Structure formats: C-alpha cells, structure tokens
C-alpha cells in the first residue's frame, strides 16, 4: 500500500470507531431520556441537563477547546440539577438508584 491508500484506510477505521462510539452514546441518551420521563423528573431539570450536554458537544465555547474546564463545569451543573430533581421526585433516596 502506498501513502494515500494507507492514509485513507486509517481514516476509514478512525471514522468507523467514532461512529460506533456515537451510536452507543445515542442509545444511552435515549435510554436516559426514557428513564427521566418515567421517573417524573420535572421538565426544567431535564432541559438543564440536555442543554448542558448540547453545550459540551457544540463548537461554541467560552474557553478554547484544549481547555475543557468550561465544558466540564457546565455538564457538572446540569448533572447536579438533575441529581437534585431525582432526589426530590423520589428516584434517589440517600443512595444510588440501583439500591432499589
């Protein structure tokens, strides 16, 4: 294999791996959405979570991309709002959601 074919093969493999990860993430997000709907978590808190998730994957950033502190901070705020709403709705009571 010469240079261009090798580079194209590597690019195809990388794109296939990224597409696989994106598919797994999409399935997990759909499952999370269903769980939140069944749990009765208020819409405001689910919107905060999904808004934070959109901010993390969007190309618009407060800080340049090599510094992920703004992305992590926004996602943590969204998760904190979701966690508090889950506790208020009775989904989580003093332990993990799997404690049952």
Characteristics:
mainly alpha; 72% helix; 3 helices
Count of DSSP-assigned helices: 3
How large is the radius of gyration? 18 Å
Output mean pLDDT. 75
Note poorly predicted spans: 95-100
Distance between the termini: 56 Å
How many domain regions? 2
Structural class: mainly alpha
Helix percentage range: over 70%
Shape assignment: elongated
Say how many strands there are: 0
Organism: Streptomyces indicus
Membrane topology: Multi-pass membrane protein
Keywords: Membrane, Transmembrane, Transmembrane helix
Protein name: DUF1232 domain-containing protein
Mind sketching the topology for me?
Elements lengths: L2 H37 L3 H15 L11 H20 L12
Helix pairs in contact: 2-3
Summarize the structure in words.
- The chain has helices at residues 3-39, 43-57, 69-88.
- The protein is mostly helical and 100 residues long.
- It has 2 domains: 1-39; 42-100.
- Helix 2 (43-57) packs antiparallel against helix 3.
- The radius of gyration is 18 Å and the shape is elongated.
- Residues 95-100 have low confidence and may be disordered.
- InterPro entries: DUF1232 (IPR010652).
- This is DUF1232 domain-containing protein.
- The chain crosses the membrane at residues 6-27.
